[in-house]
Amino acid sequence: MSIEPFFLVVDDEEHSREGLRDYLEGLGYDVQIAANAPDALGIVKKQRPDIVITDLKMPQMDGLELLEEIMDISPETMVVVLTAYGTVETAVKAMKSGAFHYLTKPVNFEELELVLKKALSQQRLEQENRELREALADQRAHDEIVGKSEIIVDLIRQAERVAPTNASILIEGESGTGKELFARLIHNAGPRSRKPFVAVHCAALTDTLLTSELFGHERGSFTGATERKIGRFERAHEGTLFLDEIAELKEDVQVKLLRVLQDGNFERVGGFKTIHADIRLICATNKNLSEEVKKGRFREDLFYRINVVKFTMPALRDRRDDIPMLVEHFLKYYAAQNRKGTYRITPQAAEVLQNYRWPGNIRELRNTIERMVVLGKSEIIDVDQIPIELKGEDRAADNLMSNPNTNLRGAEKILIEDRLKQYQGNKSKAARALGISRRTLYRKMEEYKINP
Questions:
Q1: Tens-place pLDDT, residues 299-318
Q2: Domains 143-314 and 317-448 share a fold
Q3: Which one, out of 228, 250, 297, 440, has a CA that is 20 to 30 A from the CA of 102?
Q4: Which CATH architecture has domain 143-314?
Q5: How far apart are CA 267 and CA 269, in angstroms?
Q6: Run of H or E residues at 428
Q7: Residue 4 reports pLDDT greater than 80
Q8: Residue 273 main-chain phi, psi, to 5 deg
């Protein structure tokens, strides 16, 4: 395997556990040992091993008791029970308690290796099934990309042509235009659809945390690293890794990412073992990345590596014909989510929504519909139920129209101030309405010296 499984050997006999560890490490597996069940449970709680090989007869807590505890803590972990006191009754009891297999001591290593390969194979299959169910549930929750405008139909056709390939993809577009949903469409239409789709939102993490999030870290590699962490590259093995807001990556992280994209190899933070991950990369940004390259804020070599095929997601104001269909879609979805009846919208209210500029794009529209469904006293959405800020042009837009000397920065500042005022200084809600991350909002507030 490219990503090595993690095994835990539990045995109160030092010679036995050391022998098993040496044998398993010789097969290329990552192994830890424990001399008793309580120590083993501590490791299971923190690190969730793939397989536990445990002796049956141990002081304090025997192997069957340990097995039952593991099933409660980490049901995905496979447990193989070993004993020198093999009886049919004990074997049956172990299997009924959830053990994958039962072997007698002294261990036949060839038999053990076969059992472990079967356990790993079954575990991978179960993991794939779980991920597939989650992906299908997520797809049902968000449905497909909604819209019949020419620009959306053309994008979907292009996505279907690119999906079967392994080309790296860059998706540009304003915040809230559906870049991640479009990335999932490409993943689901391609040969990696049964493998994981792993998303990382780069702007939401500090540089140190982002490096650990992408590549993982070893226990003790830095302050607070109390256990091993598997990174997103490993989790996305044979699937798709989606990096959102990639323009926010600092130089050192860009260098590390470029190296991994060249050969697929990396080490966890604080680790020395080279790990290989086979991933398809899809990146997204709300900035013009070629302009970021010209300004020296993004590496040119990394840009060309990720920009093999580029898509540009349209702003909602550029596809207004899709707004009625999106409104109907979100009304049905949030009515079902909140166990309410069938909602319909009056022509007057629909016109207001279609004429609004939607600076936060589809994300803002979705949040608005959800709010109206949750707070609405009637299942008929009329103009009086539409938030007041949607019933006329934004103050930022008015300022631009009335004062030709007002620049985009001034309009952006006014828009941020309006959203902060609208949500009584709640930055999370304001950021969602604006279609940006909290980190971006804080940066903009500092840049424009905005005090809510």
A1: 999 999 999 999 999 999 99
A2: no
A3: 228
A4: 3-Layer(aba) Sandwich (3.40)
A5: 6
A6: helix 427-434
A7: no
A8: -80, 130
